[in-house]
Write a structure and sequence with these properties.
The protein is mainly β and 126 residues long. It is built from no helices and 11 strands. The strands form 2 sheets. Strands 2, 4, 5, 6, 9, 10 and 11 form a 7-stranded mixed β-sheet that branches. It is globular and about 45 Å long. It starts with a strand and ends with a strand.
C-alpha cells in the first residue's frame, strides 16, 4: 500500500505560481507512475498531468500544457507540480495518485490509479 500526502496549495492571484508536492510512503519498493488530477466545484475530477517512475516520460492535459510542469525525485518519493501563469479556471482541489507500473509507464486514465491523496485546495483570484 502507498500513502500519499499533498501540500503546497493556497490562494494566488491570476498570473502567479504555486508548487504542489506529493510525498509517498509505504510499499514504495515497487515502481509506480504518478498523476495529478483536479476537481473544481460542481465538476467532475479531471486529469492534469502524469509522470513515469523513471521520471523521463510525462503527459499533460491540453488545458495546462506550457504552464504546468510535473517532476519526480524518486530517491525522496516526492512528485511536484509546478504551476505557472495560473488562471481562475485552475481553481480546484488538486489530488495526486499512484499506479503500480513499469519504469516508463504513465496514464491519464483515472480508474487505473491504485492510491489517492486527500487533496489540496488551489484558489486563483482574478
Amino acid at each position: 500500500q502507498v500513502q500519499l500526502v499533498e501540500s503546497g496549495g493556497g490562494l494566488v492571484q491570476a498570473g502567479g505560481s504555486l508548487r504542489l508536492s506529493c510525498a509517498a510512503s509505504g510499499r514504495t519498493f515497487r515502481s509506480y507512475a504518478m498523476g495529478w488530477f483536479r476537481q473544481a466545484p460542481g465538476k467532475e475530477r479531471e486529469f492534469v498531468a502524469t509522470i513515469s517512475w523513471s521520471g523521463g516520460s510525462t503527459h499533460y492535459a491540453d488545458s495546462v500544457k506550457g504552464r504546468f510542469t510535473i517532476s519526480r525525485t524518486n530517491a525522496k518519493n516526492t512528485v511536484y507540480l509546478q504551476m505557472n501563469s495560473l488562471k481562475p479556471e485552475d481553481t480546484a482541489v488538486y489530488y495526486c495518485a499512484a499506479k503500480y507500473s513499469g519504469s516508463y509507464y504513465y496514464t491519464e486514465v483515472e480508474r487505473e490509479y491504485d492510491y489517492w491523496g486527500q487533496g489540496t485546495q488551489v484558489t486563483v483570484s482574478s
